[in-house]
Design goal:
Elements (H helix, E strand, L loop, with lengths): L3 E9 L3 E3 L18 H4 L2 H6 L16 H6 L6 E7 H4 L23 E5 L7 E2 L5 E5 L3 H11 L4 E4 L3 H9 L5 E7 L7 E2 L11 E7 L5 E7 L5
Parallel strand pairs: 1-7, 1-8, 3-4, 3-7, 4-6
Antiparallel strand pairs: 2-9, 5-6, 8-11, 10-11
The structure holds NADP nicotinamide-adenine-dinucleotide phosphate.
NADP nicotinamide-adenine-dinucleotide phosphate (NAP) binds next to β1, β2, α4 and α6.
């Protein structure tokens, strides 16, 4: 059965998945790149390719615990769901030419559903990514993504509001969050309103020598 999974979702010690304010110049606000430095050091990230020498060759980047977790992000997915604030900076809905942060060939390579109260027509990108814009409940968005996923899993790609809403709605089967040893104090926090979440999940924590802690939440009772 197609599962709903979250991967590589990085949070501060106080649970923020982004700082503030979000902007074109600073997509993660005052958090900068600190939430993802653990991932940038991995071979998984290098293999994504950013055009620099050696990148993508499979010969750069760490191959330890952080890489092993990070690489799960790419395995077994037929669709992604993300929030409007992941897709672009505040106000992107007013720019008819905005096509996401990722250039002409985004890394998703599947149908990718952007939740927004101001939807627009689908955008077909290079490499297999098509962005669909939906104003829908989490359950209805998941039904659409699952129908497009060809029997594979659906990734909930963030940001915090969307991960939180899907957890609150009981729609997440497996979540991998990465606790980074920084305190942000402000931003968009994932845990608000999720009191007692652990009752429904087996929670494991795996510390990495890099200083981050990988948290996995696996639903105790599979969805019918
Ligand atoms: N730490 C990580 O690993 C990670 C991963 C991914 C993203 N991020 C970051 O997280 C930040 C974004 O997170 P966020 O919590 O601010 O926002 P978000 O979860 O990306 O998006 C929330 C927005 O999506 C739209 N939306 C959500 N649910 C909807 C629904 N059911 N129907 C229609 N529209 C819906 C609404 O926007 P509108 O009302 O404006 O349409 C809402 O304000 C960005 O900085 C991003 O880079 C971090």
């Amino acid at each position: 059965m197609s599962r709903t999974r979250v991967h590589n979702f990085s949070i501060s010690l106080d649970g923020f998945a982004t700082g503030e304010p979000q902007s074109l110049e600073a997509p993660f606000g005052h958090a900068g790149e600190r939430l993802h430095e653990w991932m940038f050091a991995t071979r998984f990230w290098a293999a994504q390719g950013d055009g620099s020498e050696g990148v993508g060759s499979g010969e750069v980047g760490s191959v330890g615990v952080d890489h092993a977790f990070a690489a799960q992000h790419g395995l077994g997915f037929g669709a992604e769901i993300m929030g409007a604030n992941k897709f672009g900076p505040p106000g992107w809905q007013d720019d008819p030419d905005w096509r996401g942060w990722w250039g002409p060939n985004p890394p998703f390579r599947t149908p990718t559903f952007v939740l927004t109260h101001r939807p627009r027509p689908p955008m077909e990108m290079e490499g297999g990514t098509t962005f669909y814009f939906l104003d829908a409940s989490p359950a209805d968005a998941l039904a659409a993504a699952r129908a497009a996923a060809g029997g594979q899993d659906v990734r909930i790609g963030g940001g915090a509001a969307v991960v939180r809403d899907f957890l609150a709605a009981g729609l997440v089967d497996h979540a991998h969050l990465v606790q980074v040893p920084i305190v942000l104090g402000r931003g968009s926090r994932v845990w608000d309103g999720l009191e007692g979440l652990e009752d429904g999940y087996a929670v494991e924590a795996v510390p990495s020598p890099s200083g981050v802690v990988h948290l996995t939440l696996t639903r105790r009772v599979p969805r019918a």
